[in-house]
Design a protein that fits this description.
binds flavin-adenine dinucleotide; 2 strands
């Protein structure tokens, strides 16, 4: 199984981390957990 990343909070910071992590290692399985109903589109 490949590496997995879980990001808590899908605001600007969380979305940016997810995008950058995916750019650096496309094989990562990335999940974001957000307590509110909306997530950021920042990247
Ligand atoms: C009134 C106001 C107006 C602003 N206007 C602008 C603007 O016009 N332009 C601009 O560039 N910036 C603006 N900012 C600043 C901008 O909102 C912040 O810089 C940016 O949102 C910070 O992003 P962040 O990801 O660090 O934090 P946040 O946006 O706070 O994101 C953190 C996320 O984590 C989630 N979270 C926290 N704890 C948990 C948990 N335990 N489990 C699951 N999810 C969790 C929260 O629900 C949230 O969605 C404004 C800020 C405020 C307060």
């Amino acid at each position: 199984m490949g590496k997995r990343v879980v990001i808590i909070g899908a605001g600007a910071g969380g979305a940016s981390v997810a995008a950058e992590a995916g750019r650096r290692d496309p094989s990562l399985a990335i999940a974001m957990i957000e307590q509110r109903g909306q997530v950021s589109v920042a990247a």
